[in-house]
Structure prediction request, 211 residues.
Amino acid sequence: MIPAKLMKELEKEGFSLELPGYETNEKKIIEILKENNPRLYLAIPLLLRKKIDYKKITSALKKRKDGKILTKEFNSIIAIAIRIFKEENIDNKHLQKIILENNIKEQPQTSELNYYHGAFTEALRSKEKTKEEDLEEEIRLRGKLNTNKALAEIYAPAKRRIMKKIFNHEKLTDTELKYYYRAIRPISRAILNDNLQKYLHLIENTKKLHG
Prediction:
C-alpha cells in the first residue's frame, strides 16, 4: 500500500493517483472502525448524514474478535452524531430510528461531544472552502475560454501567438516586434477606444430592440 504521507506530498505537487473507492457508506464505516483509530472515528458522523444499514455494519463487525468493542464504539458515535445533527439542524430521523430499534443507550460525555462537534464543523467548513475554490477555478477557466473565443474572432492565429508571448513576458524577435506595431497594435488601440466601445454597445442594443 502506498504510504499516506507520500500520497499527501505528491498531491501538493499536483499529482493525483486514482485509487479504488468504496461503493457504500456502510463499507467506509466498517473500514474506519476496523482501523481502531480514534482520529479516523471523527469522520463517521459525516458519513452518518446519509441513511445507513445498521445491521449490515454490526454484522460485519461481529465477525471480528473485537466486534463487541467496535460495535459499542459505533453506537457511541451514533449517539454523538444525533446530538451534533440536532445542534446543526441536520435531519436525524434515520438515526433516531436506529437508536430506538437497536436500543442504543450510550450517552456521550460533554468533552467527547465537543471534540467530535469541533471536527465535524471544521470538516464542513473545509469542504465548503474547497467548493468555493472549485467554483472560482471554473469561473476563471470559463472566462479564459470566452476571452480566447473573442480573440479568435478578431485576431488571426499568428497575431494571437505574438500577443500570448507578450502576455507571458517572453521576448519578441525583431520581426515579431515590427509585426506587432504594424498589424496588432492598431487593432488593439481601436478596440480600447471609448467612443468605439460606446458606438458598438449602441449598435448591439439597437439590434436587440429591432430583432
